[in-house]
Amino acid sequence: MNKFIAIDERRIGPDYSPYIIAEMSANHNGDIENAFKIMEMAKKCGADAIKLQTYRPDTITMKSDNPEFFIKGGLWDGQTLYDLYEEAHMPWEWHKPLFEKAKELGITIFSSPFDFSAVDLLEELGAPAYKIASFEAIDLPLIEYVAKTGKPMIISTGMANEEEIREAIDTARNAGCKELVVLHCVSGYPAPAGDYNLATIADMADRFDVLTGLSDHTIDNTTAIASVVLGACLIEKHVTLDRNGGGPDDSFSLEEKELEQLCVDSKIAWQALGKVNYMRKESEKGNVIFRRSLYAVEDIAEGELITEKNVKSIRPGYGLAPKHLKGVLGCVASQPISRGTAMSFELIKEDR
Questions:
Q1: Which of 227, 251, 273 is the last residue of a domain?
Q2: Are 194 and 326 contained in the same domain?
Q3: Which of 2, 155, 186, 287 is 20 to 30 A from residue 278's alpha carbon, by CA?
Q4: pLDDT in tens, 277-326
C-alpha cells in the first residue's frame, strides 16, 4: 500500500489530516450561480476539494415507461430514472466555467464520470483525479478507462460485496492506477449511522492493501468524525446551500456551518489519534510536580523511627516517589526533619 497519494500536490494518507471532499452532486438545482456559491462556501469552510458528477440522462439510463425504470420508495419515489437524472445532472457546458472558478478560488475540483465520454470531457479540462461512484463500482470497463488516464482514483464501495470490491481494485491497478483510495460507503439517502459498521474501514485497508476513507450519507458529522479514528484519510460529504432547498439531494446534505465544523473536527480527531506514545507529553510536564510524593507530616527528631504517622504520600511531588514508602518505614531520621519537608534518602538511615 502507498503511504499516501497526492491530488494537486495535497498529500492524502494516515500521516496527513483528513482530505475533505465537498460533493456538490445535484444541489446546484439547475442554476450555475448556485454551483458557484457552493464552491465559494466549500472553500470558505476549509474543504480540500469540490466534486461534481458528470453525466447526461442518456449516458446513465434510457427514457422508458417500463415499470423497472420507475423509482419506488425513498426520496425520489414515483420518478423515472431518466426524469431524475434530467433534473439532477450537471450540464456539460457548465464544466469549463466551474473548473475556471475553482482555479480562481484556489480549490481542487474533479468529478465522478459515468461513461467514457465524461472521462474524455474531464481529461480536456485537466481533471487532477477521478471518483468512481458506488453505483458504478461494478462497471469494470469504466474503471479500466479511468485508470488508463494515470490520475489518482477514488472508488466508493456502497452496495458492493467483498468480491466486487476486489474486482474493482484489481481492475484499476491492472490498468495502471498507482494512486488509489477506497471509500467505505452505505448507499442509502440518508443512511442511518447504525448501518455503517465503521470497523470495516480498518479491515478494508488490511484486506485489500489500500488507503481507505468514508463516503458519508448520514445527516450529521458524528459518523465521519468517528471514521478518522479508524483510519479514514478522506471524507466525502454532500453539501448544499439550503437543506430545505427542494433539490434531489438537499435533504441529506451539510449546510455551511456543518461543513465548516466537519473540516475542523476531523482534523482535531486526526490530531488526537496520533501515534503510539507512552512518553510524557508537553502539556503534562508542568503538572508533574503536583503528583504524590513522600513528605514529613509531623516534626521528626534525629534518630526517631519513620512511621505511617509521621511520613505520608501526599501532593506535591518534590519528595521520594510513593513506591519507596515501604522501604522508608522502619528507618530512622538521620537528622531533624521539619513538618512539610519533602523526604529524600539523605534524611533517613536504617534503624540499627
A1: 273
A2: no
A3: 2
A4: 999 898 989 999 999 999 999 999 999 999 999 999 999 999 999 999 99
